[in-house]
Amino acid sequence: xxxxxxxxxxxxxxLAACSSAQAAAPAPPLGRLFFSPxxxxxxxxxxxxxxxxxxxxxxxxxxxxxxxxxxLFLDGQATPSDAARVxxxxxxxxxxxxxxxxxxxxxxxxxxxxx
Length: 115
Prior knowledge:
The protein is an alpha+beta fold.
């Protein structure tokens, strides 16, 4: 065998080895550049959080002071409140539940069932 034929054989073998190695390796992700605008928007948005509806608490009482914020007793637990959220004329208070809904509760009247 001549030097020329050995070089050809070596280059063909090397080319075949590189081709099979590339075919076996998984392709790296292309990134967001090659996605459509709608797909990019979908990828960039955080997944929607589902919040379970929380029933409103029971308002057991309201304590007001000459100085300082009022205290609400919700389901038997003392909870500080904002004076703007309490109406003493009808013994009611606005209460926001963990699911983000706001309820007007009255002392001694059970809360309406949540939908």
